[in-house]
Structures are given as C-alpha cells and as structure tokens.
Specification:
Length: 297
C-alpha cells in the first residue's frame, strides 16, 4: 500500500466531529497521545528486557496510530501524504547524502582558463602586529599577495581577521566564492550578465554575509572543534540567502562540508597565528600545510 492509497483509506475511517477546530485539534492531540504511548512501550522494554515479548507488536500498533493521525492532518490541510513523504526524502537526502557529481561539477568549467578559479593553489595567511598592539593579516595565493590587510574590525580580538578562510573553503568545497574570484581577478567578463549577476557586487556581498554568519555561528561553538555536524537551521538560512545564485544548487550536505572544512582550517590558522592551506577544487578539499614537518625534514 502506498501513502496516497493509505491516506484515502484512512479518510474513510475518520470519526472526528466536523467542527473546523476539532478537525485540527483532535488529530494533533491524538498524535501527541500516541507518541506518549510509544514512550511507555519503550520504557517497559527498558524495564522488563526480553520478557516484554509483545514490544514489537505494540510498537507497530502505536506507529500505525501515529501514521493515521498524520494522514488525517494531511487530509485536513489538502496535502498529499505521498507528496509530503517525497518532499521529506528530498530534504533529508540533501542534508545527509553527498551527490555523485559534488566534486566534478564546477561553475566555471565552460569559461576560459583565465576566468576559472584555479583548481589547485596554496593560500598563505601572515599575521602582522600593529603599532597599537593589535594584529592584521595579509592573504597570499601561490605567494602572490591578494586583497587588503585585514583586522578584526571589532573591540575585542575574536579572530575575524582570519575570516578569508571561509571564502577559501567555499571555493575549495563548493567551487563558489565571488570574493575570492574578485581577489584573484578571475571574474567571468567574457559573459557580461554572468559577470554582473554571479561575480558582481551583490554576489560579493552575499559571500561576505555567509562568511559573517558562519563565523559567528562557529565562534560561539568553539569553532566546531567538538562536532562534525551543523545545525539545519543555519544551513536553511544560508540556502535562503543565496537562493537564485549559482551556488543555490549546492545541497545542505555540501554546505555543511564547506563549513566544517572552513572551521578546521580556521582553527589551524588561528592557533598558529597564520599559516598555509592547500586548496584542491577538483577534490573539494582545503588542507593545512604543516610547515614544521618540512623544517624538521
């Protein structure tokens, strides 16, 4: 039995008063009650262990009751249960499954080499003390200086001067960073509309906005040193922010990998007060280069 067939059959067994409020409240209360019953059955399993012989049968019954209320609510709001299930699978797949073409597909493959983000490069971030006792950084790509000197632009030292790492990770993992493209002078000027929409001022602002949001999120969580996941609410915010840009096709899973990659690189650069990173856009990686091992070798 598929979901839509189940929903149609469940509609025939509805015994809820026709009052509009009841048609919504009763299924909601019923669903909450059945979830409670589910917890009770699991509590019995924890308490009684294998002696709770009817656990599987009872769990199946409670899940069936929950499904009935879900179907009834879907009917109440003129939703197809099949469509709801399909949309949910699409959402969870985008969140957790890496697409097969995640690395191979780059946005600038059809453009001249001079307008492509370099597929391999080394980024170097040097930290320099300032006369007032603070710090600034300078960014290099393959030992060529790019961009301006950056400070934290804040009252406290929170490390925001290193935030270019987030642009580097976006480029390496997602193949997207209008900021880095501008710094490297790789804008797609051979296609004026693409240059305006995807590489222009608005796209650059969006790239900076994403970097600021992710930086703040990571800063408040020890730069993700103790986790390998990112809150779905953050991923949803980013997807909403960049909707309409070429990077909008990147999945939540890919964005999560970009954020985690950026956080690891950020911790390395921050802890070493600068350093080198190796970007590989073909593999979707941004790896720290431990120069200490070079010197010791």
């Amino acid at each position: 039995m598929d979901f839509d067939e189940y929903q149609s059959t469940a509609r025939l067994t509805k015994r809820i008063p026709a009052h509009e409020d009841d048609e919504t409240v009763v299924p909601l209360l019923g669903m909450a009650g059945e979830v409670g019953s589910l917890l009770v059955e699991y509590k019995k399993l924890l308490r009684d262990g294998p002696s709770h012989r009817l656990f599987t049968e009872h769990i199946a019954e409670e899940l069936g009751d929950i499904l009935w209320y879900v179907a009834t609510l879907a009917t109440r709001f003129d939703l197809s249960l099949g469509d709801v299930a399909t949309a949910n699978i699409a959402k969870t797949s985008a969140r957790w499954i890496r697409p097969a073409d995640a690395v191979r597909s780059l946005f600038d493959e059809e453009y001249p080499a001079t307008e492509q983000l370099p597929r391999h490069f080394e980024a170097r971030i040097d930290e320099i003390p300032t006369e007032d006792g603070r710090f600034k950084i300078v960014l290099y790509a393959d030992d060529r200086r790019i961009g301006s000197e950056l400070t934290d632009n804040a009252w406290t030292d929170d490390g925001y001067r290193f935030h270019d790492v987030f642009h580097l990770a976006n480029a390496a993992v997602l193949g997207w960073s209008p900021v880095l493209r501008a710094l490297l002078r790789r804008k797609r000027k051979s296609a004026p509309l693409v240059d305006e929409v995807e590489d222009g001022a608005r796209a650059i602002v969006l790239d900076e906005a994403v970097a600021a949001i992710v930086f703040t999120y990571a800063r408040d969580r020890n730069f993700l040193a103790d986790t390998e996941t990112v809150d779905f609410s953050l991923l949803r915010t980013i997807k909403s922010l960049i909707a309409g840009q070429e990077c909008g096709v990147r999945s939540e899973h890919q964005w999560e990998q970009a954020i985690l990659t950026a956080a690891r690189a950020f911790r390395f650069i921050r802890d070493n007060r600068g350093g080198r990173l190796r970007a590989n856009l073909l593999e979707g990686t941004l790896d720290p280069i431990d120069t200490r091992s070079r010197r010791s070798g």
